[in-house]
Specification:
0% strand; 79 residues
Amino acid sequence: MEKRKSTLGGLPGVVAANVKTRRLRLGLSQEELADICGYHRTYIGSIERAERNITLSTLAALAAALGTAPQNLLQIDDD
């Protein structure tokens, strides 16, 4: 079975960009963010590459770890 390559479009791309931007702004590595959320570093990386269609509970965990509200990770220009 061929693995489909993700484009950074759509909502997964918005979440990916916002998670990465916030993580870098906080000076966290993917591994540090993963530890805070209770996920594996490779999972965080796949989220940041928009390869995952995450659940609402994952969105909430990421938002809490990044010090923001979940809806902020869904907005195109997250500030």
